[in-house]
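Deliverable D5.2: sample structural annotation.
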Amino acid sequence: MAVLETETHGQIFVMRMNRPESLNALNYEMRCAMAEAWTEFEASKDLEVAIFTGSGRGFCAGEDMKEALKDNTPGGRKLPMEDPFRTGKISKPIIGAINGFAMGGGFMLVEGTDLRVAADTAIFEVSEAKRWLLGGYNHGHIANVAYPVALEMAMGYRFTAKRFHEIGFLNRVVPAADLMDEAMKMAEHLMTLPPAARVNTLHIMRQMRPSITPAFDDLATRLHAHGDLSDLIESRAAFAEKRKPNFKGWLKPEDRYRLPQL
């Protein structure tokens, strides 16, 4: 069984992550397949809109932590090729059809889409705070939500599709059975627009999205290393072994009060 399924409907490209037994966790094989498929989509002169979804109960559970533990590579092995979806180099609109759990790296895949429709049963979580030494500080900022909601996201709380629709993170919420029909309607609408209007409008709208300044990126880099790095593996081991983690926090207790500054 292929870990990634693709199909075309005229000028509409559908990509479906297909590891339902692991909630479509991002193992090395699937990440490579996705990089190749996105590259082909961007290069195609026939395809203009993509729908991105998952199979089974999950859209994507994020990092495959069992594989990361086995390879001792938190975050996963480096890919041998560029993934233009992850680097933001796809110039065509992408519609996220979120069919189920979107956690951690799976949430970041949703974040990379331009328009979003979710099943009413979908659950979302920014998981960095549970796995790294810094929570997902940037996601709420990029989503342009209020500080308390951005902090809630960064601290790893879960959100329902209904809540995310209410705060503007999702365009549509529909019964699970109607998900792909609604995503296809959105894609078909885009294809009714004059080609230049579709391309040019997407381009300027993307330029207007909130972004993190270089100063905050630098601070985040230092905070990612501010603590006992063994907690990165411990968080994954505890998850895989279904036990309470034994975190150490800092190599030196006084580092708790020596936070890097802007």
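Annotation notes: The chain has two domains: 4-207, 214-257. The chain has a mean pLDDT of 96.
The annotation will be released with the project's public dataset once the embargo ends.
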